[in-house]
Amino acid sequence: MRRMPAAFAACCLLALSARAATPDDPPPYGDLVAAAGREGMVRVYSSTDVPQMADLLAEFRALYPGVALDYVKHGSAEQYGLLMSEVAEGHGSADLLLSSGMDLQIKAVNDGYAQSYSSPEADHLQPWMRWRDTAYGVTAEPIAIVYNKNLVPPEDVPHSHADLTKLLTGKPERYFGKVATYDLDRSATGVLLATQDVRMTEKTWDLFRAMGHSGVKVYSTASGMLDRVAAGDQLIGYNVIGSYALDRLKAEPALGVVLPEDYTLVLSRIAFVPKAALHPNAGKLFLNFLLSRRGQKLLATHYLGTVRDDLPEVAAIQPRSPSLRPILVGPELLTYLDQAKGTKFLKAWRRALDGG
Questions:
Q1: DSSP labels, 39-76
Q2: Per-residue pLDDT band at 20 (split at 50, 70, 90)
Q3: Of 315, 273, 26, whose CA–CA distance to 132 is shortest?
Q4: Nearest Cα to 146, choosing from 48, 227, 263?
Q5: Distance between CA atoms of 282 and 288, rounded to whole angstroms?
Q6: Is the pLDDT of residue 15 over 60?
Q7: Ordered DSSP codes for 307-351
Q8: How far is CA 129 from the centre of its chain?
Q9: CA-to-CA distance for 160 and 141, rounded, in angstroms?
Q10: Span 4-140+269-320: which CATH code?
Q11: By the 8 A CB rule, do 158 and 257 touch?
Q12: Which residue blocks in the chain are alpha helix, DSSP H?
């Protein structure tokens, strides 16, 4: 056992030498790699679909063969609840949580469930992607409107939130039952995006009412919306995570993707290492790889964007663009997690969809 760190470090060097070294290879990270090797595994809970992470997961396994990687997909709310259960049971938790439910991630951090770790990659992050050396945004993903190009005529394609409201109120029969959005009663990500829309403009309520009058169909996942729009069962999908939509274009040429011109929200999947992590060093190693040049480039191949300021060539979007509105990683996300405020918002949303 005493020789394990040296043996594991040598194994990692062999993994790197098995292919040509590149400037994007992650740095040695001091003693962290050896410590992760002693732990022997890393368990990651994530809300990101496996196909979008497959290249990054394969590369991590190749670079660090002594760290067994267990990647488990959960919905954002389910993942948060699972962490709470693991902490309550007192037997340790997963080693890294990665979720598009930004508000729930910040709540967990704010409530003291994350450990502080200053990643050596953090100096290259956009400043709005880091909070208290505990929560790190690892992607930059625009929130899009999607549509079926075969069934929605060019003159009907909405290029802004106001365009969509106008379309639904102006052609109610044409689009009745043909618009999809998140079910806020079942999707934490949907709640996050809807509340951010309202932060941007109170006219969002007009859009919600227009959706209600148009018989909007609600879904718990972005994938469900994309499936139905691509099939033509729905014609328009609202507030779809752009990375999923852009990645689907390869297989679904009928899909069209619009980044609204008035404003486009930019979501980041937030990662942190829990205090109760069974393998905290391995969790930190995985976090570093997510934020490294190599990791960010692998994420960018699936349109997950980059949060680094030294990789402008692979950025799916530029956060400085006037129409783009990053959702900041920080305590502002906690507003609607207050039970009274959250309940009030959901009641207002349901009332709007009912035509009230």
A1: H-EEEEEESS-HHHHHHHHHHHHHH-TTSEEEEEE--H
A2: low
A3: 273
A4: 227
A5: 10
A6: no
A7: -BTT-GGG-SS-TTSTTEEE--SSGGGGGGGSHHHHHHHHHHHHH
A8: 12
A9: 17
A10: 3.40.190.10
A11: no
A12: 4-17, 32-39, 50-63, 76-89, 102-110, 161-170, 188-200, 204-213, 222-231, 242-248, 280-291, 293-300, 339-353
Q: Give CA–CA dist 214/324, Å, rounded.
A: 28
For CATH 3.40.190.10, list the domain ranges present in the chain: 4-140+269-320, 141-266+335-353
Please give the radius of gyration of the chain, using alpha carbons only, rounded to the nearest integer: 21
d(CA 254, CA 149): 5
The total of other beta-carbon atoms located within 10 Å of residue 314's CB is 15
The 10 Å Cβ neighbour count of residue 301 is: 12
**For a pLDDT cut of 90, what percent of the chain falls above it?**
71
CA distance 340 to 290: 36
According to the model, what pLDDT value does residue 6 have? 47
What is the number of other CB atoms lying within 10 angstroms of the CB of residue 321?
A: 12
Spatial distance between the Cα atoms of 267 and 256, rounded to a whole number of angstroms: 20
Residue 314: band (very low, low, confident or very high) from pLDDT cuts 50, 70, 90: low
The DSSP secondary-structure symbol of 248 reads H
Q: What is the pLDDT of residues 74-106, one digit of tens each?
A: 988 899 999 999 999 999 999 999 999 899 999
Report the pLDDT value the prediction gives residue 10, as an integer from 0 to 100. 45
Q: For strands 264-267 and 217-219, give the pairing.
A: unpaired
Quote the pTM value: 0.85
Beta bridge partners of 272: 97
At the top level of CATH, the class of 141-266+335-353 is alpha beta
Task: Report the distance separating Cα 34 and Cα 40, nearest Å.
Answer: 10
